[in-house]
Specification:
5-stranded mixed β-barrel; 46% strand; 7 strands; mainly beta
Length: 136
Amino acid sequence: MEKVQIIGNVGEMNERKGEKFLNTGTRVFEFSVAVAQGKDKDGNPRPAKWYDCKIWGDVLEGVRPYITKGKKLFVEGTPSARAYDKNGEPVGVLEVNVKYIELLGGGEDGDRAPAGSYNGGSTRRGAPESSDDIPF
């Protein structure tokens, strides 16, 4: 199983981003998250790494109103990558199919999102208490 966990800030919304409905009626919300990469040896900030994120169905319900530009989020999900041509140059995109999201607060307007996490009703468990709890 592949899983990615990132902490970053929501990017600007544009015509490609936002809430959409598929032909099946399934609701999906797309947004980008920028992850800071620290500073180089001279103290200059490195460019942020961007991830395109998609939230589906139940996970989307409780969190959608709080995903706005600048909000800090913890996102966990399955990673994928795709490529396309932009003006004749290949461009790579990192994507996350979000399974779990936690609002960390902050944002462009200075208000804070309510504390909480949303995972579509599934239970998130910690590490097993003993090796007897591991199923393999």
